[in-house]
């Protein structure tokens, strides 16, 4: 494991594990030092860990205290070095009596090329640490000299802490060996702190490592993993698969579709009389909003749940209201747990009153509508509570236990995070349902595993391993952003930006401000990460690939008829390679980006990076040509009874073959005529008229509503589509 980019020889505090595959063989040196075969064998097959504390005393002398341990916590040599170049006798339990001295020096004062070459430029600048140890021959009965230099070195294009050892044996044997170490940061919860005159030590991580050691056995993880999968299956069944599938509603479910979606006179959405049925709603439907403006009578509503009516004594809602949001407002279900209820359809209800309750506000509609609904007082459905919050608590606890108690190998821990996060989204927090579509979830899961493996190879394997001995710190660094991103629908989705288009940014209050703040934060983080990468020497490599990727994206963004869409799972894929360094910020970034990948793919699948304008438009206006009313405030004659009035409009243009007319938000006419009789309308109610061209039965944009008030006042439509 490489050291962090800003780690240098001025302070080598940390934990280091000797990398045997990169280091030279020390067995012959140990033999010449008088170390017996049994101990040498233990050292050969064990793992050597150095715990280094580097500091200055009150006299500004540098001290380097080193505790060595072998696999299993077997204590090794303890070294207390002062960089003063003064000889210090020491009784070492492994090497016997020795005399040592240490200093910081420039490379040019040393006369052996092996000791002075291969170091990084900052090591030459700050000076090498030289350790000179020789046997105390009269006491130890052996004669040898170990001359070492310590510093930073690029090994296989990675910045490493290394030692160059020049050993001279009893018969003047000369052995030169390079020792390469993997870096492990000193945990924040397992180190000494000095504040003014106060000195204290925190040993939380060490205590946890010691207390949980018996629980890290592989067989226990296998048993608990099987138990978790079985438990999750029962949890998911209780959440989604006991209630009849036909009773499920989505947060945007309605009895009536927008504009002409229900066809002429609503024939595609009927019947409307006295229908009664039970339903179940998921949790948190109050946050599901209209992404485009919707015209209701003479009002437009956007970026809030669509609820019309509910203010009368019977809590009557217009049929195109979001049923679940209306049920929350009416108190039939709760937002946090969802729930079940019953609903009764009512036909031709007039005058829907606005209503505010439980954090939701509806709008009114002052005329008649073909279908409305009221909620019943009971339901026959059971198992109605949405269990996503208990599932979240369960999975958060499981992931924390994985980090701090079970502590599997980093790669196993990584795959646990991938599986837990993906299936939490697919089954609980943002399923493609309800109920969850398991076929789609399993279909996306295999490619997610391939992408996740790339995440491991380019980033996680370099960082997650560095925090293996700091389980609590690792849990906080990884799990906090991980769960924030996995629950993207509750966190980042609250930011008033859904799509980075100029039209969306202009429509939503606070969108531009939010975008500016996000860009500033991202710029700061990217600049800092560039600084980190530059110190490792990898900046040209990463910069080259990112420039190439940017040029590729630029080319595909220019393809005709398509628009570039950087979905959040794509953003995670783009950014993850730049986080493959053993720093705390990189650990935080990796948790965040992994969560974004899992949320995006589990909730929406692998949406394309290129989409057509129609795919992005959703139910917004096409931008098509609009017809013109010939009936205007200037031509409407109030003296003529309503039963004898006609609404007229201008003839067809060359690109269209018919008209569609909405009266009070219901399609009442489709054809080529240039007028419509108003004799069927109630003269005591206001009426709203919207007109669109059609082509082969498909309507273009509708005009804004023209309004006819009961007193005979005609209001011309505003400019633009509705």
Automatic annotation (TrEMBL):
Domain spans labelled LCCL: 268-363
A Pfam family assignment: LCCL
PROSITE patterns: LCCL (PS50820)
Keywords from the named record: Membrane, Transmembrane, Transmembrane helix
Transmembrane segment boundaries: 217-235, 412-429, 438-456, 468-490, 511-530, 542-559, 566-582
Name this protein carries in UniProt: LCCL domain-containing protein
The organism's taxonomic lineage, starting at the top: Eukaryota, Fungi, Dikarya, Basidiomycota, Agaricomycotina
